[in-house]
Write a structure and sequence with these properties.
Blueprint: E1 7-10, H1 14-23, E2 29-32, H2 36-44, E3 47-48, E4 51-52, E5 57-60, H3 63-69, E6 72-75, H4 79-89, E7 98-101, E8 107-108, H5 116-119, E9 126-127, H6 129-136, E10 141-146, H7 151-155, E11 160-165, H8 169-179, E12 184-189, H9 192-214, H10 219-239, H11 250-261, H12 266-275, H13 280-286, H14 292-307, H15 312-323, H16 327-335
Parallel strand pairs: 1-2, 1-6, 2-5, 6-7, 7-10, 11-12
Antiparallel strand pairs: 3-4, 8-9, 10-11
Helix pairs in contact: 4-6, 9-10, 9-11, 9-12, 9-14, 14-15, 15-16
Bound molecules: NADPH dihydro-nicotinamide-adenine-dinucleotide phosphate and 1,3-dihydroxyacetonephosphate.
């Protein structure tokens, strides 16, 4: 693909905007927002999240035009809207399109999230975003964009690394060509499931790490949360059919460190507020920001029950977040948990 060919983005949220400005370093970018008022506002005042939109970024309310002009399109919307978004854009997609999503969450089918505690959930009901893209469109060449990519840092022009995960070398090549810059180092992998799962599951550990900090605890136990949390992520990954490797790279440890230690992470911040004693409802009702880890925690805890996985951190976080379980008691449980060996996943 020539660097002159425009790239499309679905979703003018914080990560969509950050990626738009990054892509604009190499090519023209067309961003789809479903909100005509936002499009109008951005046409007049080209500021979003406190930064100017790059001159090569155009925000449109017309996805048909974007699909007509762009072959490579990055859907970047929250996981709970992802399938609905795909259904709305699929009439305009053709087999020649390439979809590279940037979403870090699960899709669930056949059960409403609110009913999960009552009805439970099984593996067949849980889908990754690449699975949803394949299920809902005629597009074949798909992939995922993941890695330590806190939108706030990217918007502020700070450097980072991303991972393009795809079964297709062509997707990797085309995406790398438009994403690589002096601000972003791009890695690639064919392990799509591992890279996607790492990005999804680390949000739960970031939530837990924020809880510990909000509760007033220090780095020793935060390190324990991140280390043992990585074990649980790998344990989940294996149970869902992935191997270990992605978890040790930029998409795994890399993103886990960024998200579980930064006050710029929405998941970490959400957990921090819970740790200071606010309830789930209080945090939810006063925060506009998306914390995918809350939804992921609901899904993974019930999936773990269904799969009979031993994931004590996930279980304790679930009880703290959704059942008001005291943090101190949960800490005691985890500190005295009979882990047999330190490293058990090699
Ligand atoms: N922010 C970050 O640091 C990073 C985020 N991610 C992931 O990216 C995903 C999106 O996050 P983020 O950008 O921060 O979220 P935001 O809440 O900032 O933005 C989400 C955007 O998606 C749009 N949207 C929602 N539903 C639809 C739909 N059905 N059709 C079209 N557009 C829709 C929203 O539009 P509207 O305003 O009209 O509702 C909004 O513009 C998440 O899964 C997150 O985990 C990944 C890496 C970094
Ligand atoms: O995935 C992210 C960083 O890579 C974004 O983390 P938050 O959604 O917690 O802000």
């Amino acid at each position: 693909m020539s660097k002159k060919e425009p790239v499309g983005i679905i979703g003018a949220g914080s990560f969509g905007t950050a990626m738009a400005n990054l892509l604009a370093l190499n090519t023209d970018v067309l961003v789809y927002s479903r909100n005509p008022e936002l499009v109008e506002q951005l046409r007049k005042n080209r500021f979003r999240f406190g930064v100017p939109l790059h001159d090569r970024v155009t925000v449109l309310n017309d996805f048909e035009e974007i699909a007509g002009r762009c072959q490579l399109i990055l859907p970047i919307v929250p996981s709970d809207s992802f399938r609905a978004m795909m259904k709305s854009v699929t009439p305009y997609l053709e087999p020649s399109h390439v979809l590279l999503h940037g979403t870090k969450g699960f899709d669930i089918t056949g059960v409403d999230l609110n009913d999960v505690p009552k009805l439970g959930i099984d593996r067949k009901q849980v889908h990754t975003m690449t699975e949803v893209m394949l299920q809902e469109s005629v597009v074949v060449r798909t992939g995922a964009l993941t890695g330590p990519n806190l939108a706030r840092e990217l918007l502020d022009g700070q450097p980072s690394g991303s991972v393009i995960a795809s079964k297709f070398d062509e997707v990797i090549r085309r995406s790398t060509e438009v994403l690589s810059s002096s601000q972003l180092h791009v890695f690639s992998t064919h392990d799509v499931l591992g890279a996607e799962l790492a990005g999804v599951l680390k949000n739960v550990i970031a939530l837990g790490s924020g809880i510990l900090k909000g509760y007033g605890l220090g780095k020793n136990v935060q390190a324990m949360m991140i280390t043992r949390g990585l074990h649980e992520m790998i344990h989940f990954g294996r149970a869902l059919g992935s191997d270990n490797r992605a978890f040790f790279g930029t998409a795994g440890v890399g993103d886990l460190i960024a998200t579980a230690t930064s006050s710029k992470s929405r998941n970490y911040t959400f957990g921090f507020r819970l740790g200071t004693g606010e309830t789930l409802e209080e945090v939810r009702s006063t925060s506009q920001e998306l914390a995918e880890g809350v939804r992921t925690l609901m899904i993974t805890r019930h999936l773990a029950k269904n799969l009979r996985l031993r994931v004590p951190i996930t279980e304790m976080l679930y009880q703290i977040v959704f059942e008001g379980f005291p943090i101190e008691v949960a800490m005691n449980y985890l500190i005295t948990y009979p882990y047999e060996v330190d490293v058990d996943f090699l």
